[in-house]
Amino acid sequence: MKKRVLFVGDEEIFRIALRIALKRKKIDLVAEADRSLKNLIPALDVNDFYDLLIIDISMPEMSGIDVLEYLTQEKKDIPVIAITDHMHHDLRFFCSGIRSIRIIQKPFDQNELIGEVLKLLD
């Protein structure tokens, strides 16, 4: 069965490159176009639909930390890859409530990200 990854981020070129790279590994990428937390929550509430969440922490319309906080409060058991341009205290705090999480700092090599995706989906 194909694995499904939900990506939440505002960089379209990154979404396209990630979709192509994951497709080669037989992984479906579902890019969330509407990046507001209110509209993202229903997607996260569908139990066992997504196998992994990749989220950009810094976005203009929503903070990835808000999503991590939601996942922690609601006790959602979904592996997460958080992409950030800098590590800060809030990120470390909200990551502590998530069982399977990897933090990747920008800039990063795409192979590093794909490697982490494969580890978390294994």
UniProtKB/TrEMBL annotation:
Pfam families the record matches: Response_reg
- Keywords for this protein: Phosphoprotein
> 4-aspartylphosphate modification sites?
56
Please give the InterPro entries that the UniProt record associates with this protein: Bact_response_regulator, CheY-like_superfamily, Sig_transdc_resp-reg_receiver
What sequence ranges are listed for the domain Response regulatory?
A: 4-121
| GO BP terms | phosphorelay signal transduction system
The UniProt entry, under PROSITE patterns, shows:
RESPONSE_REGULATORY
Q: Which domain of life is it from?
A: Bacteria
Which SUPFAM superfamilies is this protein grouped with? CheY-like
Annotated SMART domains: REC
PANTHER family for this protein: RESPONSE REGULATORY DOMAIN-CONTAINING PROTEIN (PTHR44591:SF3), STRESS RESPONSE REGULATOR PROTEIN 1 (PTHR44591)
Q: Please give the name of this protein.
A: Response regulator receiver domain-containing protein
Lineage of this protein's species?
Bacteria, Pseudomonadati, Deferribacterota, Deferribacteres, Deferribacterales
